[in-house]
């Protein structure tokens, strides 16, 4: 059976490097946990690192965090759906918002519960996902400050996630200026300028982060050591905190080109093959993980002499060449994954979740 592992030692070392970086710049930061899909044992491992604030985009995941440690400050990091208002107020101490009507509903729910719900207002800076348009910002804040049960604690922005718009000094300076404008006009203190995510970290190291940006939300760099800005891995950080192991369920020498008329496959594609390879053969291993669990573009064997050549719903085929590795049924093949690959695997209920320290797999 296929399974994913988390290496707690490597996760801790990544966390410590990030924590030291942010502390040296007097920046607060929160761990983004949505990659973990609410998995209790992995959430506990993150909380054990000493985090005090965790962000997620699912109310059920925030509920799981509160069940583990009610003292953790939880942040709902997408504009809440109206049907989720009760859960957001119950399990999120803070939410990111862009719609006045939604904040009015949060206000009503908070008042009913005798609570103060904190909000960060997201500003549109070019990514064209969530965010209040800048020309509406002053009026927007004017309305929010009148609402009972609501405390405005920050201004923020999101970049890169959808279209890949990169953060830079000028964009983040704009965010800081808007914060100063609101504070001056309304005589209100706004503690957070939440302008940082994994992609923004290189701006710190290059001295390009405006001093006013004082809050980061970090997921990918913690789990994969990724320099998202340059699509590389940071020095002295681990990109293999997570690993995927899949079991070989068949090994055979087979032709390299399918035989027969080709139509649409499972994903709707009609594939073409180099007929010059029609007389050649290779050893192929089938492993017990497929498109239902992870798309083939988002994972690859750790060994360079293996190559994914196709996937169906529940199986993936690996080209072993002449199988000089001696792969046999029952062996485990180790794979590395990118962020989206881990996310898909974590969401699959068919893949076991373990700690690497718990097992000693016989890996091919």
Automatic annotation (TrEMBL):
Superkingdom of source: Bacteria
GO cellular component, one term: cytosol
Organism classification: Bacteria, Pseudomonadati, Bacteroidota, Chitinophagia, Chitinophagales
Protein name according to UniProt: Predicted amino acid racemase
Lyase recorded as keyword: no
Source organism (scientific name): Arachidicoccus rhizosphaerae
SUPFAM superfamilies per record: PLP-binding barrel
Pfam family, one: Ala_racemase_N
Cofactor requirement: pyridoxal 5'-phosphate
Residue ranges constituting the Alanine racemase N-terminal domain according to the UniProt record: 7-225
InterPro entries reported in the protein's UniProt record: Ala_racemase, Ala_racemase_N, PLP-binding_barrel
MF terms (GO), sorted A to Z: alanine racemase activity; pyridoxal phosphate binding
Keywords assigned by UniProt, alphabetized: Isomerase, Pyridoxal phosphate
């Amino acid at each position: 059976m296929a399974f994913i592992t988390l290496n707690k030692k490597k996760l801790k070392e990544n966390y410590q490097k990030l924590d030291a970086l942010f502390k040296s710049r007097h920046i607060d930061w929160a761990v983004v946990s949505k990659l973990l899909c609410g998995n209790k044992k992995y959430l506990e491992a993150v909380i054990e690192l000493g985090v005090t604030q965790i962000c997620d985009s699912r109310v059920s995941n925030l509920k799981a965090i509160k069940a583990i440690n009610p003292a953790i400050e939880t942040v709902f990091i997408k504009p809440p759906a109206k049907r989720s208002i009760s859960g957001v107020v119950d399990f999120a101490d803070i939410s990111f918002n862009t719609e006045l009507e939604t904040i009015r509903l949060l206000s009503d729910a908070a008042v009913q519960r005798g609570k103060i719900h904190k909000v960060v207002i997201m500003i549109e800076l070019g990514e064209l996902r969530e965010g209040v348009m800048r020309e509406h910002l002053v009026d927007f804040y004017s309305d929010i400050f009148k609402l009972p049960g609501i405390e405005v604690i920050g201004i923020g922005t999101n970049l890169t996630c959808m279209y890949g718009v990169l953060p830079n000094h000028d964009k983040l300076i704009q965010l800081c200026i808007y914060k100063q404008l609101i504070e001056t006009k309304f005589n209100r203190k706004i503690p957070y300028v939440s302008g940082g995510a994994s992609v923004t970290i290189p701006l710190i190291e290059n001295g390009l982060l405006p001093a006013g940006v004082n809050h980061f939300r970090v997921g990918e760099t913690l789990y994969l050591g990724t320099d998202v800005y340059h699509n590389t891995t940071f020095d002295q950080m681990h990109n293999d905190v997570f690993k995927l192991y899949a079991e070989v369920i068949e090994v055979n020498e087979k032709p390299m080109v399918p035989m027969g008329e080709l139509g649409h496959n499972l994903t709707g594609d009609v594939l073409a093959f180099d007929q010059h390879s029609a007389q050649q053969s290779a050893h192929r291993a089938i492993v017990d993980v497929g498109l239902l669990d992870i798309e083939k573009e988002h994972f690859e064997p750790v060994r360079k002499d293996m190559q994914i050549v196709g996937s169906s719903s529940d199986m993936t085929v690996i080209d072993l060449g002449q199988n000089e590795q001696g792969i046999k049924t029952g062996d485990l093949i180790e794979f590395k994954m990118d962020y989206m690959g881990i996310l898909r695997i974590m969401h699959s209920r068919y893949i076991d979740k373990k700690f690497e320290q718990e097992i000693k797999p016989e890996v091919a």
